[in-house]
Amino acid sequence: MMSSLPQQFDDAKTRLGSLKEDPGNETKLKIYALFKQATTGSVTTKRPGMMDFVGRAKWDAWNALGNMTQEEAQKAYIQLVDSLVGAEVSCMIGIYNVILLCQLICFLNYFYSFLAFYFYPFPSVGALSS
Fold first, then answer.
1. Architecture of domain 5-87 in this structure
2. Which residue, 9, 13, 87, 110, is most buried by CB atoms nearer than 10 A?
3. Where do runs of H (alpha helix) occur along 1-52?
4. Residues 12 and 78 sit within 8 Å (Cβ to Cβ)
């Protein structure tokens, strides 16, 4: 059964907190803007002053969403978080596959050495002196 949109939104907030990699400033601004739009709606405050660079960047990102509904913002937020978590999981799967490949190569190297020794053992000392 599909959970409600507010529940999915809360789950996305939790999953966002579990990210291991920093998504970067541009993505963090999108996350912030979508979160504010989803929880409060459109911007109602004045734009921060010229010297508040971070505040202005956040306000501009939020204001750029215009009249997006809170429901649309929640859906976009969920999709963005899902894409970030999915990318991180894909990266971890890739690393896991590389580790498995290295283990396989080590095993095959060991197995090849065993077969080479078994079928082509070192010559005896007497055979070397003749």
1. Up-down Bundle (1.20)
2. 9
3. 5-17, 25-40
4. yes
